[in-house]
Amino acid sequence: MFFHRKEPMIPIEVRKPNPVFAQFLLQQFGGATGELTAALQYWVQAFHCPKPGIRELLQDVALEEFGHLEMVGKLIEEHTREQKEVVSDLEMAPIFAIRGRGPHLVDEGGVAWTAAYINEGGDVVRDLRADIAAEAGARETYEILLDRAPDAGTKKVLHYLLTREIAHTNMFMRALESLGKLTEPVFGNVKPDESVNIYYHLSANGAPKRGPWNQEPEFKYVADPVKLLESHELVGASGKVA
Ligand code: MN
Ligand code: MN
Fold first, then answer.
1. Is residue 141 within 8 Å of residue 27, measured between CB atoms?
2. pLDDT in tens, 84-118
3. Distance from the CA of 173 to the CA of which of 61, 133, 138, 147 falls in 20 to 30 A?
4. What is the CA radius of gyration of the chain?
């Protein structure tokens, strides 16, 4: 069950409305990286999470994201409130001129929110990785918004929201770690085959670039994969890589 407390998580104060900035803010209301996406993603994931502790984490963070949705909505409401002294103040923000003031479930380009933004499946490891990616998207958008925010009050709220996404990232990373999956790519019941450690160098020109992502002993670097692939001996009877 849900209760609604009629105050935002932190106070929201916008002295001078800026409808153009409000249109940017729509990304975090009805956009792919927005709060509705995060809230519903974690909420639905919680239903199929078998670990009670991680289930509660997903529910708690989902509820917090609904709180963020409320804050972004309030910011949009404030930035689109009527300005008596300004004639046709929505002229430069067509979404609000057409649909009305306040938040709508569209992004800054007017594209309707869709459940296709949500990344969730039946496995807690897959879900937590998707959540870390979702938080990264939200954090990036907040940085872009912070850079363009027209007033100190708005900046304060956006800085808080950006910070909370970092906090959530850390929580999801610790949850993955508790499952032994923060630095372990393999999960599920199917054992990978012998190709699991192969790095195919498929860039045809320029000097090969080497790094921890393709170095021995963890990876076998195949500098010329054409021969290997043509020989069909990638996974031989011996199980040895050609
Ligand atoms: Mn959030
Ligand atoms: Mn978050």
1. yes
2. 887 778 888 999 999 999 999 999 999 999 999 99
3. 147
4. 23
The amino acid sitting at 147 is D
Compute the residue count for the chain. Answer: 242
Which amino acid is residue 8, in one-letter code?
P
4-18, 26-40, 75-89, 180-194, range with the lowest pLDDT:
75-89
> Which residues are within 5 Å of ligand 2 (an ion), measured at CB?
135, 165, 168
Residue with structure tokens 């170095």? 215
Ligand 2: centre distance to CA 165 (Å): 4
Residue 88 DSSP code: T
Tell me, in angstroms, the distance from the centre of ligand 1 to residue 92's CA. Answer: 27
SS3 99: helix
Rounded to the nearest angstrom, the distance between the alpha carbon of 35 and the centre of ligand 1 is 5
Residue appearing with tokens 């937590």: 128
This prediction's pTM? 0.91
Q: What is the dihedral of CA 55, 140, 161, 178, to 10 degrees?
A: 30
Cβ contact 137:8 at 8 Å: no
From the CA of 160, the nearest ligand is 1
pLDDT at residue 239 greater than cutoff 50? no
